[in-house]
Amino acid sequence: MRQLIAGNWKMFGKLADVTGFAAAMNAAPAGVDLLICPPFTLLERFAAALKGSAVALGAQDCHPTPQGAHTGDISAAMLAETGATHVILGHSERRADHGENNAVIRAKAEAAITAGLTPIVCVGETGAEREAGEAEHVVRSQIQHSLPPGFAGVVAYEPVWAIGTGRTPTAEDVTAMHAAIRAALAAQFGAVGNAVRILYGGSVKPGNAGALLALPEVGGALVGGASLQAEDFLAIARSALRG
Ligand code: 13P
């Protein structure tokens, strides 16, 4: 399976950043799928700047309903209209900042699929849950409750304690968790579950990407901070080819 390197810009980036970043993506290596997920305000400009490029565009959240009286929210259909093809859902920062639970994330994933978007659903344990030996149990439960029937999207394993900290799990821990996620997906969705890409996210940098991407069942990376610099993002993409 080709690897997917996805950049999550979170709440960073200005209109003035878009043209240069998109132009730098002309140097993107073939053989790996690239996706950039900027804030809502940059989607349209990115869509125009990436026209003709192999780099895909995604958003970072959507509302579970197609339209309505939901001040400040944006629907999946509105995202699709900008040119986005993917949407990150259930990121731990949204779970923490906005109290999103598995049921809400599942409804958002359904809305995304209805609008023709590919959902990237994030799962991952906190540091306390890992220390308590609960990591696999927590992640399995998130998989079970936050993915809709027939899920043909992407899953991102992002241990909360590894996000923005410079810390990553050991190769053994990533391997074990990705195997557990694959088993849970296969049990829940059969053959469809075997085709779901499982990304690793949390402090992925050019220096550690090659080792992480070479691990079994790691189908790519969800990159935060390092995706803001085109050169770092491209370096990570190149390491996917060596993985
Ligand atoms: P960092 O790569 O900055 O640790 O962020 C990871 C992340 O949350 C991507 O969604």
Structural class: alpha/beta
Sheet having the most strands: 8 strands, parallel, barrel
Strand content: 15-25%
Assign the CATH superfamily: Aldolase class I
Unreliably modeled segments: none
The CATH architecture is: Alpha-Beta Barrel
How far is the first residue's CA from the last residue's CA? 12 Å
Outline, from the CA principal axes?
A: globular
Overall strand count: 8
Describe the structure.
- This protein is of the alpha/beta class.
- Helices cover 43% and strands 15% of the residues.
- It has helices at residues 15-24, 43-49, 76-82, 92-98, 102-114, 127-131, 135-146, 171-189, 191-194, 206-213, 230-242; strands at 4-8, 33-37, 56-59, 86-89, 118-123, 154-157, 197-201, 220-223.
- It has an eight-stranded parallel β-barrel, surrounded by seven helices.
- The chain is globular, with a radius of gyration of 17 Å.
- The chain starts with a strand and ends with a helix.
- The model has no long low-confidence stretch (mean pLDDT 97).
- Bound molecules: 1,3-dihydroxyacetonephosphate (13P).
- 1,3-dihydroxyacetonephosphate is lined by residues 8, 91, 158, 163-164, 201-204, 222-226.
